[in-house]
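Subgroup meeting minutes
Present: P.N., E.W., G.H.
Scribe: E.W.

1. P.N. recapped why we're keeping a running log of single-chain structure predictions: easier to compare across weeks, and new members can see raw inputs and outputs side by side.
2. G.H. added today's entry (241 aa).
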Amino acid sequence: MRLFLPCPTCAKDSDGTAYGLPFSESNIYSFRCHRGHEITVGLVAVRFEVLFEIGMQALVDGYYREAVMTFSTALERFYEFYVRLIWEARGIDAATRKDLWGQVAKQSERQLGLFAATFLLDTGQMPPLLPQTMVSLRNDLVHKGDITDQASATTFGQVVADLVHPALHEAVGKHKEAAATMHRQHCENVLAAHGRRPADFAWWAEAFPVSRVRADKDPINVAAEVQRRVRRDRGEKPQPI
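Output recorded in log:
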């Protein structure tokens, strides 16, 4: 699983060479391009976006069991993102947020309940939750050691995308100021973890497929995206999707 990044300096000369780097917990990536530029890139994407991308890569590479479990984790981290976004929008102070999340941080069922209540209070609608068939699929993989196939893993990924995309689109549109604040805080945290801002530092802000909320009103078509990537990896001519 790798994140493919361009050299920002070379990109100015229309050099689209991308460099595959292992995913990093820090969201900071350093590399030297083929022209000798020393590059440090900060990833703008937040955790649920990165996890969904890892799930997509697992799906493309044929690791269907791993894809399902990573998609599931991505959904859980989206629930956390959503809760924190609403807290920010409602002006909940940082200490209270930290204390409350600390009560549920290691218990996924409590996190799910917190998300459901938060979503209901903010929108007046039923929260986007995994249907029971998908819950059973995930649980059988985790607890029974079942092995799944491409079709089931693709369906699971599509269900997650269909849950995340509209909820994210609506929440970011409704709470623009809070979303901007969280974006700024995320970038500040990435830099703080790195210790300093290098002179050659650049942000990589291309949206991962699960959250292209600005350009696309509809969720990603997971099956079509997988096929597009397979054709790309085979060197075939890209097809419209």
